[in-house]
Amino acid sequence: MAQLEINNLSKVYPPDVLALDDISFEVEQGEFLVVIGLSGSGKSTLLRCINRLIEPTEGSIKFEGKEVTTASSKELKAIRKEIAMVFQRFNLIERSLVLTNVLTGQLGELSFWRSMLGRFPEEMKQTAHEKLKTVGIPEQAFKRADELSGGQQQRVGIARALMQDPKLLLADEPVSSLDPATSGTIMDYLAEINDQGKTVITSLHFLDLVRKYGTRAIGLKGGKIVYDGHPKGIDDQKFKEVFGEEAEKVHIS
Amino acid sequence: MNQETEIPERSSWPFWRNLGIAVLFAVAFLVALNRINLDLSLLIENFPSTLKLWSAFAKPDWSVFGEGVILLIKTLYMAFMATALALPFAIVLSFLGAKNLMNSPVAKAIYTAVRGLASVIRSIQPIIWAIIFVVWVRTGPFPGVLALWIHSVADMTKLFSERVESIDVGPMEAIRATGAGKLLVLAYGVIPQIINPYLSFTLYRLDINVRMATIIGIVGGGGIGMRLYSYINKWNFPKAVVLTMLIVLMVWGIDYLSSRLRERIETGGGEKTQEYSI
After folding, report:
1. Contact status, residue A60 vs residue A9, Cβ threshold 8 Å
2. Do A93 and B187 touch (CB under 8 A)?
3. DSSP readout, A199-235?
4. Which terminus of chain B faces fewer neighbouring Cβ atoms within 10 Å, N or C?
């Protein structure tokens, strides 16, 4: 049984925008899957359907054998705890401390009132500091999140995801808001997480990064899968199929 | 580029539209001038009858000073009470009146009701509310507080809701993705983004209520305004002048304090202010 099984998944945004069109694929544990495609090709929708931040219109998503699409709100919370997410715009609570942001990764684990009052246990705080150390910014713990640079904010995003100790990490264009050098560092952290046996599904724009980090690539065009295979298999012909005839490869160093 | 570039034709519509709007305003102005009797000669002819009022400024009757200060404090209390009692109502209603949080059909109906009612209540001036409540519960500070309260609830609900509607949904999405429930999404994804604007609006509303509290006394809503109006009715201008000066001082003071405080809140304690050189 694959860790993630997606069958005939479709998403229609009212009134009639077909963002995902009958998509099926499986992901094995430990894969580093990169989803590529133009803006508007359905990458973000696909990633958000997996943890149901966006409700799928049709089809089935099974995570570790549990059906996600029909899960009750309680079951869904349990599934979401196992699937962490990193975002293009980092999505931190800007006015809160970096440490608090990391701790929010564990909100689901605390009792309701402890969470509401922000009373995180000491050992949880200790773990949060360790996660910040993992992403190389232990000294930023008591700064406000919006004081950090983009690259640092994305590291906080990753630390928050790590706090969940997820089995699957979804990263929606994690480096699209960052400069090329910082992008490499962030991708290295995702690779490190992947090396520890956690599945990573991410969307990327640069083919160089796809080839360097991905163990598998899926190309989306108009909500349909037009490529599914090893990143090295994307030749110029395939590239044009995914990104259109006029596309040129942009290289970053 | 050697090729001939085709320049799209520009529509002449904006010119005619702007000219039309200008003509409309000119006509409206002339009609209004004709309908409203602007008899400037009255200003000059009747000037002597105001001499008694002006002379009062030269010799104010300070015997009302002590009484005035006490009335001033009572008026402040009225404004403070109205604002403090409006705050919890406005906080709850602001979430129910925020379009981005109210998605289901039932929620949308609640949203429409809350915002609709808020704009109706808001469009009725506090002084009209004061008249209504004076008829209802008799004269005094109580109807005054009620009038300020109801208008504050509606006004703050609208301002707060608009603030909630303009929040960044990113943090909410991130908190939801961790498996947290609705209230936690509110506590971590929404509240940190709105707490300072809410504080700032509340201070601003307190500022407005202090000014309004001095006015609503005129229709029987209590406070210093009520006494001021009775002195004016008795043509006791030397006493009225003292009360007026006290009101000006208080309004100026509150205005200054509130704007200084709001400045601090909005810049997060002054650490994020930027300097510009032109």
Report:
1. yes
2. no
3. EEEEE-S-HHHHHHH-SEEEEEETTEEEEEE-GGG--
4. C
* CATH number, position A97: 3.40.50.300
Q: Could you tell me if B102 and B110 are in contact, meaning their C-beta atoms sit under 8 angstroms apart?
A: yes
**Selection from B195, B196, B207 nearest residue B257 by Cα:** B207
Residues from chain A contacting residue B193 (CB–CB below 8 Å): 93-95
CATH of the domain at B139: 1.10.3720.10
Express as a percent the part of chain A with pLDDT over 90.
78
For B50-78, what is the mean pLDDT? Answer: 91
Domains in chain B: how many in total? 1
Mutate one of B167, B173, B176, B178 to test the A interface: name it (highest A CB count within 10 A). Answer: B178
Residue A249 lies inside a defined structural domain of this protein:
no
- Is residue A21 in a domain? yes
**What does the alpha-carbon distance between residue B80 and residue A51 come to, in Å, rounded to a whole number?**
47
d(CA B243, CA A71): 68
Q: pLDDT digit string (tens) for A170-197?
A: 999 999 999 988 999 999 999 999 999 9
Total number of domains in chain A: 1
Please indicate whether, in this complex, the C-beta atoms of A80 and B174 are within 8 angstroms of each other.
Answer: no
